[in-house]
Amino acid sequence: MKIKFLIATLPQNGINADLLILFFNKAMIRKRQKKLHVFPPEIANTVLEYLILKDFNGDFNETALIYPDKLEGIKRILLVGLGEKSDPSNDELTTLGSTISKIQKKISSKRNYVLLCNIYFKKEKLINNFVEGVYYDHYRVDKFSSKVNEKCIEHHNVFVCKKAEYTPRFRKVIQKSVASMEAVTITRDLANTPSNLLTPEKLKDEVIKLFSIKPGINVQILDAKSLEEKKLNALLAVAQGSREKPYLITIHYKPKKKSKKRLALVGKGVTFDSGGISIKPSANMEEMKFDMAGAAAVIGMMSVVSQLKPKYEVISVIPTVENMPGGGAIKPGDVVTAYNGKTIE
Fold it and tell me: What is the pLDDT of residues 232-258, one digit of tens each?
């Protein structure tokens, strides 16, 4: 599922949309005669005719779908209720985004315009959380299914503002919101991939594919031989019962200008944790594929970093192994000397 988000000014020659989305709180409904003048006249008149019927009250998460017969270029108008508030919380806005996403999918609308002329709360927050809600609702774990029932539609969401409101700040909010949610999708995809399809080697390959050609990003991989040379024995000990080789992955971002600040991230990348010789109970064992979710989160974070390019260094370290029982597995009571010289029983 592809989703695009843009910020645009209100077109002079009218909007060409499958779905036009308008937000209303209860006060806007009560004072509709005065409040609707901010919309283009043809849209205001269409909405006013519907609001007079009092079928839509503006309750939170209430929706009404209108099929205008007098508006050229606009197939549908969706009214979305904000409740009594003029400044909903982050969670409420995410909920609204998810609700709108469900309707977009149900009616298979490709061109979706969100008109912000009458919104009095912080538009940055509206955009960010609307984007989150749309992405969350669109996410599906279906790439492993033999049959995918849902239609794949490319959704194009445009936030239409007055000319004075079209600022670089808005564009940055969109860029940051989309980058963050694309990173969430990367993280969820990795975490949901079964361990036979995401071994330590394949996780390493995913990192190389994502970051090898990103400006300012350097990827370093230590294989089993390098780990032995550097005496990273604790990491090697976890992997020694598996036929899958371990790796230590470092993803290093450096800004163009030298910075004294550094952020370090460490993500656990055990692609499957059976417990080794001390094998875990069989109930829910399949969930041990999520033992690499820390690594997935760090990879997602570095995806954001590669796009937003912060002014400080970010260094991510991912040890990735598979922990399995086997003739070579570490045993209870064994003693391992770690990289820092400390012994572990």
Answer: 999 999 999 999 999 999 999 999 999
